[in-house]
Amino acid sequence: MSLDLHTARALLEWQIELGVDESMADTPIDRFALHAAQKATTAAGPVAPAAESSTVVDPIAHAQDAARKVTDLSGLQAALETYPHCELKLGARSLVFSDGNPAARVMIIGEAPGRDEDIQGKPFVGRAGQLLDRMFDAIGLSRRAEVAERALYISNILPWRPPQNRDPTAEEIAMMRPFMDAHVKLAAPDLIVLMGNISCQAILGRRGITRLRGHWTEALGRPVLPMFHPAYLLRNPAAKREAWQDLLAISAHLKSSPA
Ligand code: URA
Q: Is the pTM of this model over 0.90?
């Protein structure tokens, strides 16, 4: 197997993180004999504490700590780049942080980058992203708009593509949540749109997008509207009717509470 420099380096860093400090011992170690000896010692009575104890790192506490220290969006991106505990970054080409205008009144939170997003380093640029752009264009909002009133800011719960686009695990979501909380605080949108089940799970602690969609709720101190994910709409075009109602609700909300 041939690895590119970036992947090889990431794999090495990961091993160091796990505590690997030599690639091979000079002499073979009989782990079965060691285990038997340890059991015999334990049975014989209390043992003195090991000279060196390894520090157990809590990835969520580390994420909370790192996220608490950031003061701006570029600092947040840098904190994610150096965060070592999410193994997804090892298989991903890019850290997909955000796209659009951070001053936008509307922030969209999706699930995780797919193949196109991983290649381009931007969220929602594949087929689902193109549909998302058309949907929001229809109510006069765009990620390319410079004026905050007409702008969108877009990010994902996970900044790295999961292998084979699998669903993120509960641990991966929990590790990324402190960063997303900081992201929302720094971007300070007037409202948040949660795209699909994973985003609802991460931010609201609930799934069931068919029931959740279209119902305003509050999270992270702001109004939140769950919507069908555009990838779902590509597979189920009949659900675009409900998505259109949700878009109209967003438009009405913005008009009824001007910036
Ligand atoms: N789906 C998402 O949830 N986010 C992306 O960036 C792309 C597809």
A: no
Element (H, E) at 192: strand 191-195
- Could you please report the per-residue DSSP string of 125-174? -SHHHHHHHHHHHTTT-BTT-SSGGGBEEEEES-SSPPGGGPPPPHHHHH
> Which residues contact ligand 1 via a Cβ below 6 A?
110-114, 117, 123-124, 126, 128-129, 156, 195, 231
Q: Which residue has the tokens 């997804």?
A: 88
Q: Number of H helices and number of E strands within the chain?
A: 12, 6
What's phi and psi for 99, nearest 5 deg? Answer: -150, 165
What count of other Cβ atoms lies within 10 Å of the Cβ of residue 256? 7
Mean pLDDT of the chain: 88
Pocket residue to mutate for ligand 1, from 116, 156, 157, most atoms within 8 A of Cβ: 156
Cβ proximity of 176 and 102 under 8 Å? no
